[in-house]
Amino acid sequence: MTEEPGTDIHPLDQHRDPLHAAGVRGLAAEVAAQYGGELTRMRRANGYSNATWVGDGIAVRIAHTPVDMAREAALVRALPREVGHPEILGEGTTDGHGWIVSAEVRGQNLHEVWPTLSPVERRRAVHQLWARAHIVYDASPSLRPHVATHGGYVPASLGDATAAVRRAEAALRLTSAQRSRLHELVEGYFRAAPVAEQTVNHGDLALMNALWDGEVVALLDFEFAVLGPVEIDLSRLVCEACVSEEGRPVDSEAGAAAVEIAVRHMDPVHGRALIHGAAILDQLRDLDIWLAHDSAEGRVEDWRPCRLLTDLLDAKGGYIAPLLR
């Protein structure tokens, strides 16, 4: 299965052990061959938790860690066709690595093409991305058996979330006021979440998980699908549209569209607590990922998740400020 690591490290693997990355690539080559693909003719697609190659009529996605993808495959097969997820051709587990092979779909990764889109196209893309996700919400009654109440950036319990809070406190050297605010927001989310309407969220409603071909044609990668308040997806959608790659606020038509969508769909009673808490949990997970990078560069305070997290603790509420008024 394994292959020797090459001299060129793919940017997506720069923080991974070269032998591990080479092993995953070797496994991907074996799986691709089973479905008529040749990895050298396929391109590496965006994504961090899994390694994905696309080409030769297929897409091969391999989990970096020992993850069984059977639940995700079952969910995808139960999705309404209107979601646009590519057809799954096969799935399995090899040497502890789950994998899924799906049909290649015409289009470009929305995250990659985003800089080339006009403001009008970006706004339309945000609405279309939400429309695809909303199809999933409407189908929640039939999809519920395939998803858990935690996953992705949503911890299983307040205790797990508090552990992440403690790690953030240690890494960021937060003030007493910031620490108090962080605990308050996380606890507020866990109080409100059980009493809010429970829908099937995509769990990672990011630009990189959609395909664009003049319009959004597919919603991809349901590995973090989770049953919970819709604010889970709304918080990520707003972040994607309102925050730059560097973690700076962006004033744009796309951001305005995301805020409009969130205002319309937030829980009328608990929405503010839920979306603020979900945004905090999102950044806590990203912070944990960055902290795991031994070679992460720069001051911790300058890392994107750290900047976003401290902004969310500000009185205005960072990138979700328009939703807290």
TrEMBL record:
<dbReference type="Pfam" id="PF01636">
    <property type="entry name" value="APH"/>
</dbReference>
<dbReference type="InterPro" id="IPR011009">
    <property type="entry name" value="Kinase-like_dom_sf"/>
</dbReference>
<dbReference type="InterPro" id="IPR051678">
    <property type="entry name" value="AGP_Transferase"/>
</dbReference>
<protein>
    <submittedName>
        <fullName>Phosphotransferase family protein</fullName>
    </submittedName>
</protein>
<feature type="domain" description="Aminoglycoside phosphotransferase">
    <location>
        <begin position="45"/>
        <end position="248"/>
    </location>
</feature>
<dbReference type="InterPro" id="IPR002575">
    <property type="entry name" value="Aminoglycoside_PTrfase"/>
</dbReference>
